[in-house]
Amino acid sequence: MDRLDARVPQISPHRPFRESLATFGALARSGFQRYITYRQATIAGSFTNIVFGFLRCYVLLAVAAGADGGRPAGYDAAQLTTFVWVGQGLLTVVALWGWTELADRIRSGEVTADLLRPVHPVIGYLAPDLGRAGHAMLFRFVPPVVVGLIFFDPYLPGRWFTGPLFAVSVLLAVVGSMGVRFLVNATAYWLHDARGPLILWTLAAGVLAGLYFPLRFLPDWLAVTLWVATPFPGFLQTPLDVLIERDPPPVQVALVGLQACWAVALLALCALVQRRAERRLVAQGG
């Protein structure tokens, strides 16, 4: 009987980049394979997103119909339609809430096993999350977008670079969201129970990310403050504004650049918090 190949890619001092990339890819594939097994949950989640998509779309279309000139905050009806349906698809891709794996492992003490692995904990959680986002992009993003195309008249991008820029923006949104979720979960290192911070994150994320309504509906000074001083608009608002070409090309690129800055800053902060936490880590029960 042939033996199974159970080798795990290790980081080699002779080929560190190649082996590190192979390890990262293996972790990302594991995240994809983990979520592809939840078929019924995927179908039920897509159906729920579609139902709420109809509700949100008709509400925003009513707002557009009652606005002067039919363009509230500079959005026309077609742009708002795309904003809603693509936003419903991105909701699961970006995953604003529902992830408590790190906090649960800290509370149980299992996080000590993460420190023995030859992969930094931040990378060890980021790579599978990118695999999860890839699964969501295929099976949770596509159905709402298709429904929106069938039942409504959405806005379709007209600039050749909008598609690639949107893809980069979505990737940065996933990385940034993972960074904040990691930080919120990491509060369990000090609190031992992160349910309080997780509830605050759940309440704030949807509003500040632009899930319920475009942030441009807010006063200009408040919207600009949220964009510059917080990473939240980069999770949904920025990718959606890029896709519907709400701004001129230079502003589109600048918004994605701001996303990139926040993604790098959040990953660096995650690494710093993890290093500080390891100095005072106490495994409960032993």
UniProtKB/TrEMBL annotation:
It comes from the Bacteria. InterPro entries: ABC-2_transporter-like. The chain crosses the membrane at residues 43-65, 77-99, 138-156, 162-184, 196-215, 253-273. It holds the Pfam family ABC2_membrane_6. Keywords: Membrane, Transmembrane, Transmembrane helix. This is ABC transporter permease.
